[in-house]
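**Paired protein data**
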Amino acid sequence: MWLTKQTFNEPGTGKAIYEYAKPVFENNQKTGTVRIGFQVPEIVVFKGERLSHLSMIVFLILATIILFYYGVLIVIKPLQKIMKNSKKIIHSSVPESNNGGQGTNIVNIIGELNKSFSNIQDRITRIESENIELSTKMGAISFEKDQIINLLNSLSFGIITTDLHDNINYINDYISNLIGRQLKDVLDQPFDQIIENDDIALSILQFEQIETAGNGKNIETTFPNFSPGETFGVSLYNLTDKSGESIGKMILVKNITFQKMGEKTQQEFISHVSHELLTPLTTIKSYNEMLMDGEIDKEEMQKEFYNTISEETSRLTRLIQNLLNISRIETGELVINRDFVRTELLFEDCAAAINASALNKNISFQKLLPDTFPSLNGDKELLKVSINNILNNAVKYTPEGGRISFSLYEYNNTVTFEVINTGGGISKNDIPRIFDKSYRSDDKHVSEQYGSGLGLAITSEIINLHGGEVEVQSEPGKETCFKINIPKGEYYLEDK
């Protein structure tokens, strides 16, 4: 819109006054008028065409002022909007002002913006700090989770957890190795499709009917598809949340094959020892009753009965002594009382203990002695027990008319007692187990003989406590050689 021009005459003087006016609009509404008036001086420069040039200059000045004003308004509006939004960010929400922004000072707006930006920066700094703290906590949680997983994977038994629908949500490495599949392959898969086992399926069904939270159900089963020939113990537990609501199940799987074998061996051992105790007691009782009733008149027959009673009594004594020794070994109460041992006396005591038994079976008993008897530092009584166990076995398993040799020698600072006997020999499969407690071979010539199976176990333990070892060399149908090797040790005389 152009300038309006009016001319007035000054009262009194009659001089001409020129007025230029320009209306001011905001939002298409007139908000005011800018007026400029001046009196033409009496000089030539304001006359004629020069006056039109002056009008143009004035117009440009006014236009510049108006444009500057609108420019300020244009700049202020977005700044006000930014300020309001920043306050919303900081204070969640800020009520709108009722004055429509009129009268807002740009300096105040910039000041408010500065405060808002400062608050935003503080908020950002606080959020970054919280993020760092959260990241630290997440890292700690992740570390703890990894530690728990590593712990579960290191267990010697299997763990399976399922949801309420019996879908697998975790297995540890034990189960993974057992079934040959990884967790990712079985995740969210039905348990009964991954591990097909009727015993477990039935137990789960019974367990769900009982619904005893926390109380486990234990069964024994096998996994022919995964580990044939082995026995496993399976325990079922109900998993609950803090409120006690069921959230799934936990299934523990443990290989109990050796445990079951041990239980079976123990039962066989108890049965066998009971028989070994009962047999001599029955013989002693019956022979003693016959002698007391006078049923045996002949003196030679009476002597034979008395010898049998004596032998059975010695047999009982050895068995009970072996039981006591094995009990002391298992409880750690077997103590070695070391002293100076004269091997010639130890050798003769052991040889004398089997002379009678060897003669009764017409066994040739040969003693091989060194020119000089070595000495050693050990427990004479326990060494006698261990050597006698070997010699008694030699007599027991040597057939009538067979041969036993008993020798003593020293080599490389080690004293060796060697027993060789003829007989059925020992199979290669039995040799590694003959020193196990209560082990007896299924070989016919072994099972036919009485015995508890404790003797060699006790011998091995006693010799080990002396720092020595027992060697076995044998084959079926050939001679058997046992070597008891004992370090000489050092012996010092004490001042009395």
Notes: The two ends are 138 Å apart (CA to CA). The chain has three domains: 41-154, 156-255, 263-487.
